[in-house]
Amino acid sequence: MNTSDKRGPLPETRRARLLQALQRDGVLRISDLTETLGAAAVTIRRDIAQLAAEGLVRRVHGGVTLPGAAPLDDEPEITSLGMLVPSLDYYYPAVARGAEETARELEMRIVLRGSSYETEDDRPQLVRLVDQGVDALIVAPRMDVPTAGRTIDWLAGTGLPVVLLERTAATGPFHVALESVVTDHALGAAMAVRHLVELGHRRVGVVLATPSPTRPHVHRGWLEAVTELGLDVRATVDEQVPDAKSPDCVAALDAVLDRCRDTGTTALLVHADAEAIALVQRCEERRIAVPGQLSVVAYDDEVAGLFSPALTAVRPPRRSIGRAAVRLVADRLADPERPAHRMVISPSLRLRASTAAPAPQ
């Protein structure tokens, strides 16, 4: 069997046929080319990206034309941005709202899809977005799974502008960075530590939810801050706990509170809101006063302010993350040759009722 027939035309042959079709028809849509050339939409887009880089074609919404040619009269005016996030009920709804706001301002459209923190491979969802004809991708991919590297390489090879949300990654032998927008989570953790130290706390611990891509950044910020401020990191709490919905969470929180008692820890930074709330509720059950005996800062501020007592919290700039991602895409579409941009946005600290000066000894 001829394996080249099984795989379809070689790239050079396929691109030559694409140029011949353009010479004949002037403007072609991706959907037409997938049938004409017998290749997937993502493959066609890679070919178009290569030919555009060589100055042989000009990309238009949903298709391609020759340089200098007029687009079709019915060419859609709305640029579509495919957006894939791992959750549609926590953290990312605000990111998506920010993206949608800016997309409307720029006369673009967001095509939103939800994946899952349990998903091993994001590519099936991404392939569907590409096949629907989106003009760019805004993605928060799983980075802690075996398929992560292949997904990043695939994204870089689509021929579409790609912006990562709350993730950074590089691809290829020279580790070329993909464009990204991230929160400076380490800075947010450091802000919380400095607030607690200013109140007079000298034992400031950290408690982190186990399944979280944000966890290592929060831990790094906590560690750097307590070290810089001259606190003894070995003499306080540095623990991970299961998700607040886990049946093992209560026992883990009890172990944290026992460790606080044994080390004299008077303040904790807790990621995320659900775990912080569960910890404060456990304090109530054990008659540990918050903030009288233990000050607590939550990280995420999704619902921390709704709890009683309202929790002091670090708030990532979720809406700004979404807005910045869309603007990065718009700038890339306007100038495909510009250098990759990686944006870092600072979080804020919201002071509420769960932090106070430590009780006199």
Task: Give an account of the 3D structure.
This protein has 361 residues and is an alpha/beta fold. It has three domains: 3-65, Winged helix-like DNA-binding domain superfamily/Winged helix DNA-binding domain (Arc Repressor Mutant, subunit A); 79-183 and 318-345, 3-Layer(aba) Sandwich (Rossmann fold); 185-315, Response regulator (Rossmann fold), CATH 3.40.50. The chain contains twelve helices and 17 strands. Helix 8 packs across helix 9 and helix 10 crosses helix 11 (273-285). It is elongated, with a radius of gyration of 25 Å. Mean pLDDT is 90; it is low at 1-7.
Quick check: average pLDDT? Answer: 90
The number of helices is 12
Low-confidence stretches: 1-7
Number of domains: 3
Q: N- to C-terminal separation? A: 83 Å
Characterize the largest beta sheet: strand count, sense, and whether it forms a barrel: 6 strands, parallel
Indicate the structural class: alpha/beta
Broad shape: elongated
Return the CATH architecture of the largest domain: 3-Layer(aba) Sandwich
Report Rg: 25 Å
CATH topology of the largest domain: Rossmann fold
